């Protein structure tokens, strides 16, 4: 769909005389599978809108032969031939190759559970899958979505939009596993406020049929949920069986292992897309990253490498290479945009990297201009040199743009010092003179320069520091951190004598700005001070995720 079709099209652009064949097991050679939840939800009205290219277009425009409903069943590496079966007639034949590209993708995980094959239990990967779900939805009232990843949230939104009562089951204690819990919590809250029954830390144990019609979903907490249809969205696994049978090297995660030119351990075979393992540019870990963007880039790299190999052999390296992924991703649920790039804090802890984090909650544009909406941002960076390690952002407007800027900076090896110095577009209806990306860099850079010491939210429950809230008395009375003392910024200078010189002080405010002003005052008066990054806004997210 993405990697394979892109590879074929680029190969033609690089070589007009090459004979190029594409074999596709399904009925469509190139379709927008990222749009399938919105086709189910009637946001995309016509199935034809999902078709990126047809076999006829490939033939007319690129002179590429596309064989749909034709399955490749084997690879003879020694003879450089593939065995294919026409699924319409059952006829089997062999086809030769000089270069073979495997873009077999991934298949939805369908766990071995009692009742898993009952009618009414669906996966969503192809256009035929979406047709089945649309047919089921037309006479359904209750749906269970199993899995709280990007597709799970998009499907929950679309099913709810069609008027169904939706229950979302997720084994983890949070939705959106690529994010950290306190950031994913914003999405969880949005789901609940829009009527989705969200059940975290709960897995499916089995399914069975109801006496009349419908299904019972039995969970690990002893609950039974009635449903008219169930959609499984618990992830995908590489469809690497063909490669494994041919003796190609696989990684520990089950994906095909390739080099930076997308070449396998066979000199005549390349692989691209969801079927391959890729390296994370931050942690160095091998990962499975089923995203369209990386797959398209891999297709370009593979085609370039193949044609370079035909012309020059292996005497010189190809001009393009694939240097890994940041995992930049975005989704929307009920008007809330969630985006991320690079490593999460969970991932950094797993690989034991020395990092720091800051939180901020700026408006998406100048706050004095009507319609400003907050963007909740978490920025992760190296303690030693300020290199950007990852970012997550949640908000209603212009979230993806900020993450795209940070992802671009990360691709260039930028630091937080670079972020604070970026020159970005400004007009009040589009941003602020200090864009949220700039502000994130400034906060992190101030910390690394020593002018903004950060307290650790993880240590809040056990710290011996004096916690001082510098918001107004009215704000403090509306809710505050337990054991905090209220000393509003406006009267702080007149009451410095009330603060201890021999005890560390942690400052908090609404979103971090007033606490920073207070900290600068106190530090210059000789107090030992730290700030709780992101203030009460972060505290609310933190307690929602970890309490």
Structural write-up:
There is one protein chain. The chain has a 5-stranded parallel β-sheet, covered by helices on one side. The protein has a 5-stranded antiparallel β-sheet with strand order 22-23-26-25-24, sandwiched between helices. A 4-stranded parallel β-sheet has the order 28-27-29-30, covered by helices on one side. The radius of gyration is 27 Å and the shape is globular. The two termini are 43 Å apart. It is an alpha/beta fold. Helix 6 links the parallel strand 12 and strand 13. It is 29% helix and 24% strand.
Which helices and strands, and how do they pair?
Blueprint: H1 3-14, E1 21-23, E2 30-31, H2 36-40, E3 51-53, H3 55-62, E4 65-67, E5 70-76, E6 81-86, E7 92-96, E8 100-102, E9 106-108, E10 121-123, H4 127-137, E11 142-146, H5 150-161, E12 165-170, H6 181-193, E13 197-200, E14 204-209, E15 215-219, E16 224-227, E17 229-232, E18 236-238, H7 241-245, E19 269-271, E20 278-279, E21 286-287, H8 292-312, E22 329-333, E23 336-342, H9 345-350, E24 355-360, E25 375-382, E26 388-395, H10 399-411, H11 416-420, H12 436-449, E27 466-469, H13 473-477, E28 485-486, H14 489-492, E29 505-508, H15 513-524, E30 529-531, H16 535-546
Parallel strand pairs: 1-4, 8-19, 10-17, 11-12, 11-17, 12-13, 27-28, 27-29, 29-30
Antiparallel strand pairs: 2-3, 5-6, 6-7, 9-18, 14-15, 15-16, 20-21, 22-23, 23-26, 24-25, 25-26
